[in-house]
Specification:
Blueprint: E1 3-4, E2 12-18, E3 27-33, E4 38-46, E5 50-51, E6 58-65, E7 72-83, E8 88-89, E9 96-102, E10 110-111, E11 115-116, E12 127-131, E13 133-135, E14 138-139, E15 151-156, E16 160-162, E17 168-170, E18 176-185, E19 189-196, E20 209-220
Parallel strand pairs: 8-16
Antiparallel strand pairs: 1-2, 2-3, 4-11, 4-20, 5-20, 6-12, 6-19, 7-18, 7-20, 9-15, 9-19, 10-12, 13-14, 16-17
Length: about 220
Amino acid sequence: MPNVDATATSGIEPRGYRQGATSADSWTTFVVPTRDRIISYQGRAATFITPGRATPPQRLFAIHNSTSSTVLVSVNQILLHLYRDTIKTILVVPPTIRVCRFTALPTNGAAITKVPIDTGLSSNSAVTLWQDASADGTAAASALTVTAGEPITQQWAGRGAVSATTASAYEKFDPIVLFEGDLTLRALQGALVLLDNYAATTGNPLADRWVVSVGWDEYTRP
């Protein structure tokens, strides 16, 4: 029979087999991998269709793990898509799309409903999701407010433009993966998607529409 070390640490588990018939005989030991996390919930969510705001920055989406949390959060995917029906001159600066860490709980904006992968599991109440719209095509009454930290990743949004010679052009902007991997949020940590550094009034008008989708796991260590 295997002898299991009860003091095994996360991720490894020493085991051994006795080589002889008595307790004095030697043991051959080896290590086998075990789970490094116990997943209690897997969630998906998406914002409402969110209108642009004329003044930068605009915070589109946030996920936060509160200070009292008993779980860790792994953000494994953030997707974004843009629809616009206004043509801008080619010199209008488009938004910079950023994913940033932050700490303090967001304010204003509107809550996002969590959608479980397995309906038999429940999300921890310490994990909250936020957006800058109250319904499809309707901006939140008060803009989502979050103090952003340093960016994890960023890129320019695409543009629909008119050149100096009035020839129309479109810079293609397919749905993009803003983040894919394993971004860990411990207690009092969050991840934010925001638009920044765009031309005021014209760079991100109300007619622009944004959608953010996210996937995450909630887990504890064994």
